[in-house]
Write the structure tokens for this entry.
Amino acid sequence: MRGLVQRFAAVFQLTRVTGAFAAVANVWFVIAWSRSFAEEPGTGVLDVSHPWILYGCSAVSALGLYAFGATLNDVIDAKRDRTLRPNRPLAAERISIESALSLAVGTLLVAILGAAALGMPAVLLTVLVAGAITAYNAAGRFVPAFGLPMLSVVYAGHMIVPNVNLVFTWPVVLVMTHALLIGLVSHLLERRSPRLSVRAVLFALAGWALSAAWLLWSGPAQQPDGAIWPEWTPLSVLAWVGGTVVLLVIVCVRRISRLGSGPRVAEKIRRYGSLWPAFYACAWLVGAGQVTAAVPLIGLAVAGVLGMTLLREAYSIVEQPLEFRA
């Protein structure tokens, strides 16, 4: 029984499933938002399919794509992890390279199959995002000036998979900004190599700004008036979303002031970052008066907190059984 638990724990740790809640929350939000407002063009699939079929298939696609990226990351870093992170599943030989490669291919196929239920545009965008994830893991993350804005674009591209014609793109821009800043802060706290220079940070911000500007133009351009903030979205939503942003800043600042810098606090910042998009999604929907549509996202946020806690405890038990703990 313990051996079976260890094998499953190795797979979960390899795919970093505890961080996948952001990916699921992002696509669920786009589905909920698109179905809640008649002004959003959406797609034929979103209009006629049962919402729980959409949520289920999009969750499968999001989990598959996230697991693909996480597994590919560890496969590429297998040799380096033996020195720097020997507790990772591949470095600790709890799972073989061959099994990891099979898992990467399998999760990518699952992501594409899940996207198929959302229509052909979703499938094509999923393939493009998978290509961007591969480019990021193979080269982009080693050059932060390119890698950080590339990562934020990956999040944005994956978020709009359910509805490539999304009009209200401010939530996508927020997630892009969130991904960029979490990446910057965790990179600095972890003192990861290569170090971030002022020029690299400015270049990353410029890449983010261009991508955000394109999103804010392309969405409203589908409307007759071309308004960046459509009149059917109440401005009061900004108070809800702003509150979640402020709360994240407070949580991160308190954690950094308590633990200082280093890999441990950087990992915690990334963990908070993986949960917060679900809170953003709830804030956008509740602030816009779509409380019923927010219910699945609220449930996902609660499940994310509980699931992350339980899985991390499971990892601890596998890596350091209770009888061997001090």
In short: The longest helix spans residues 291-319. The chain has 13 helices and no strands. The chain has a mean pLDDT of 84.
